[in-house]
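User: Let's play a game. I give you a shape written as tokens, and you guess the letters that built it. Ready? Here's round one.
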């Protein structure tokens, strides 16, 4: 659960501070990321409901039930229409609709969202200083700043409202490909079957065991390319233009440190963020991978110089800026 924002905050004269991440922020940052992510589950369910394949599967299942269940319960062969058969049809329709929605919800919350959240929590959000602030762990186990010549233009910010973290954003750069620290997962179908087995306290079949190789967490970017990620605003303040404040800081920092292009990735559960980036900040969609069940990953790109020419003046409007 995300830490509650003080209800006594004077919202007519709030004190906003945008500053660099500190180690003491770790718990609050992870809580904010988790709470804002799981709030998007229904958006993911809605995307799946719009997918034609979802309805094809549902109609096929419904047709099979409408044929088989009456035969099993009322007997084969032609039958006169009765109230029993009418109410049975209603029960099958309502039950299959509820089951279908429950399957979509479980798949979105327990597979898609859980995978996204745990991937972040076990990688960059496990130690933002190392991933974003150019720290490293030396041979003695001490946390030290990298030499200036080895530092990348990465950074991590938190946004505070009267002392409480209500937003965050990161700019990521990688010298080389980064392998995920998270244990390998199975396919969505394998995960759904494994989840069902665990719920029923049954052993998970070998066919549903995850692959043995670890996945790639991030590809190398170099110094001129960076990735905007971990953009999150507390659910209570998502209509207060705070995301623009964070994006402005990220893009200005990128410009100050020689980054020429900023990328961002979105999914079917981040459609609101995608709209903010494309319609308000000039990001362009350059790639989109979509599945038959409505899942998709979109890659957005923004030219930093062009953004500065069009939006650079907004970055001077911070209430308070602490780096």
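Assistant: Ready! My guess for every position:
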């Amino acid at each position: 659960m995300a830490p509650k924002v003080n209800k006594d905050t004077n919202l007519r004269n709030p004190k906003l501070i945008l500053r660099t991440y500190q180690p003491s922020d770790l718990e609050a940052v992870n809580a904010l990321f988790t709470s804002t992510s799981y709030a998007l589950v229904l958006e993911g369910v809605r995307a799946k409901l719009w997918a034609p394949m979802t309805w094809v599967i549902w109609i096929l299942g419904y047709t099979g039930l409408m044929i088989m269940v009456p035969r099993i319960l009322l007997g084969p062969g032609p039958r006169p229409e009765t109230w029993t058969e009418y109410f049975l049809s209603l029960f099958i329709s309502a039950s299959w609709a509820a089951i279908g929605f429950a399957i979509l919800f479980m798949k979105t919350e327990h597979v898609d969202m859980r995978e996204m959240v745990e991937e972040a929590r076990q990688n960059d959000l496990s130690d933002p200083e190392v991933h974003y602030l150019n720290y490293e762990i030396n041979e003695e186990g001490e946390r030290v700043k990298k030499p200036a010549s080895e530092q990348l233009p990465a950074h991590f910010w938190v946004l505070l409202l009267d002392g409480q973290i209500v937003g965050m954003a990161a700019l990521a750069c990688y010298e080389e490909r980064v392998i995920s620290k998270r244990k390998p997962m199975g396919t969505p179908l394998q995960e759904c079957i494994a989840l069902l087995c665990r719920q029923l306290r049954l052993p998970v079949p070998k066919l549903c065991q995850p692959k043995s190789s670890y996945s790639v967490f991030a590809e190398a970017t170099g110094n001129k390319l960076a990735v905007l990620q971990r953009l999150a605003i507390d659910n209570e303040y998502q209509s207060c233009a705070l995301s623009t404040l964070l994006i402005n800081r990220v893009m200005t920092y990128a410009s100050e440190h020689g980054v020429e292009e900023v990328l961002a990735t979105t999914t079917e559960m981040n459609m609101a963020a995608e709209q903010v980036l494309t319609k308000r900040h000039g990001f362009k969609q350059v790639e989109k991978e979509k599945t038959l069940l409505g899942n998709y990953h979109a890659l957005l790109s923004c030219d930093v110089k062009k953004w500065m020419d069009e939006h650079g003046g907004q970055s001077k409007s911070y209430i308070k800026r602490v780096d």
